[in-house]
Amino acid sequence: MSGFPPAQIIPPQVLLGAYAQGVFPMADQGELTWFSPLMRGVIPLDGGFHIPHGLRRVLKQQPFEVKWNTDFRGTMQGCAARDRTWIDGTILESYCLLHRLGYAHSVECHDAEGLQGGLYGVALGKCFFGESMFSRKTDASKIALVGLVEELRARGFLLLDTQWLTDHLRRFGGEEVPRDEYQRRLKIALGDQGTSFHPPVLGPGV
Fold this sequence. Notes:
The chain has one domain (12-190): 3-Layer(aba) Sandwich (Aminopeptidase), CATH 3.40.630. It has 7 helices and 9 strands, in the order αβββαβααβββαβαβα. The protein has helices spanning 12-20, 53-61, 72-80, 89-100, 140-154, 167-170, 179-190; strands at residues 24-28, 31-35, 39-42, 65-68, 104-111, 114-124, 127-135, 159-163, 175-178. The strands form 2 sheets. Strands 4-5-6-7-8-3-9 form a 7-stranded mixed sheet, with helices on both faces. Strands 1-2 form a two-stranded antiparallel ribbon. The longest helix has 15 residues, at 140-154. The protein is globular.
């Protein structure tokens, strides 16, 4: 995707404070709106995650190399490259800043022709807030999701937030929980963060 127009930056502490309260931003035609859905999408990390049989066969073929944080901006731009997007210049630059500070991460699928898909999100405490995903080649975003879940499990994460539940995520075991139940899980996953946030360790080899 080509460049965005000049953008404001959402201060990192504002973004992180919002996530700690279960709130996230989206942009629509230049207007920034904050959301806290009544029903929240989550993917279980305690055994409820399901890899469809067809994807299991694809994973054995290893069509992509899964990397972390090698092209965060490119991953966001891939997610934004659609007819209608909620990722504008403000969102892009704000999350790229969070990435530089160690809070936002990308999981990327690469092949000999470059970046073919992936996802990005924000990590805080033992919670990963999934933001968006994209594919240029078949199954790239799905394979990135599998890589994310494997890493979160290895790091002892407790909550994988998908914001809203889609049919695509439901096939992986995604479920909806009421806002009060989500807030309960979020509080546990954040632990004693308060307002003094520290970026969690995340990413293979880190």
